[in-house]
Amino acid sequence: MDVGRSLSDWKAASLDLTRPRSSENEEKELQRVAHELLIEDGNCSGHAAFRRLGSCIELHTVVIAPSLRGTGRSQALLQAAISRWRQDRILNGSSVQPKVDLAAAVRGEEIVEPPWRKDMVCFTRHPSLAASLIANGFQYAQSKRRWWSLWIRRHPLGRLNSRTMLSLMANRLLRGSTMLFFGETLPPGSKKPGIFRMWFQRRRRLFHQLTYLSRNRLFILEAAAEFIPRDSEDGDDMHDKLEAMGLDISIHTHTRGKGDADVWDEGEEDDTPFVDMTQEE
Fold first, then answer.
1. Which domain holds residue 186?
2. What CATH number is given to the structural domain containing 83?
3. Model confidence over 245-276: pLDDT tens digits?
4. Angle at the Cα of 58 from the Cα atoms of 20 and 275, rounded to 5 degrees
5. CA 90, CA 249: separation in Å to the nearest integer?
6. Which of 32, 60, 162, 246 lies most in the core, judged by the most C-beta atoms within 10 Å?
7. pTM for the complete prediction?
8. Domain membership flag for residue 275
9. Rounded Cα–Cα distance for residues 248 and 252 (Å)
10. Closest by alpha carbon to 242, among 219, 221, 258, 211?
11. Are the beta carbons of 281 and 187 closer than 8 angstroms?
């Protein structure tokens, strides 16, 4: 089971994901970062990772194997991720040993453990992943006035507190700087362009993500929310919710035919990258 190779290939194929590493480095990253994997017949079919983001936990790099996209695997992957988040104290930055109020215990009072679970957030612009998130208890974050918008207009990230917002900005700045300075290799079989075009093409992932940055939507699963997975095939109701978020529901369906097997669980495959200067030989 070569999970590292699968992750490297999936990231290279999708410009919406993080910069791909070699299979060896992906394997090392899996040992360092909290994550969930879907394993079927000894092969990896799905991946989702966790990241501490200020006072929240971010669910990111949610991806399904290309041959299995559109088959509902994202539901199983999300439910496994939510179950991990609900039970894992270390993931939430809490002590494994709950604090005990001995004085209250001696007085015979009911011991109430203080909340230790953090809210979980996820960013996506893909309707299919958005539908799966809503079906599993996530709420679409409405715009709210905050200090970074000078309280003049409602900001899409207004539901995030200052600590989380600063952590988000630092994380995205670091990720963007890495893509800008290091770039990545061209796709296999592509013809190398000139030096000037080569520089831009190797940074196509950064330009692509900046282009679609405003289309991303924030979804929040509150720590106190009861986990009751809902039926993801609520057709009309789900379409209304996605349309209200400004997501294109025309590419979203939960009952896809054989001809749609190549559609991602995260949404439709992207069209031509923002900067495409390669030609097949």
1. 3-95+111-260
2. 3.40.630.30
3. 555 444 333 333 433 333 334 444 444 444 44
4. 40
5. 37
6. 60
7. 0.78
8. no
9. 8
10. 219
11. no
